[in-house]
Amino acid sequence: MVFPLAPRDADDRDMRFELQRFISFSAFPQCANVSGLRMAQAGFFYTGLGVTVKCFWCRRNHSDWRTNDGTLFRTGNEMHETDCAFMLGTDTTNIPMHERQ
Questions:
Q1: 98 falls within a domain
Q2: Record's Gene3D superfamilies (predicted)?
């Protein structure tokens, strides 16, 4: 059985642009010790709710920012759904700020 996907709102559609994702972190609380640039590069944008971020592709939320050594939180594949096209590298809609070399 296939379930229909919920329509994406205008804000989520714009989040395919890495720059828009990065800009969303301008209001991110500093207490989480998270790099907005790294998060945007990893496909996440700030939702505006507490310290919750969301992947623009798989739409998985993340808000657990505990680190053992107080360093900046590092992104990882476990933050995405296992079938996330962005995480798997098969997404063609992401528009990066800079070309990766």
A1: no
A2: Inhibitor Of Apoptosis Protein (2mihbC-IAP-1), Chain A
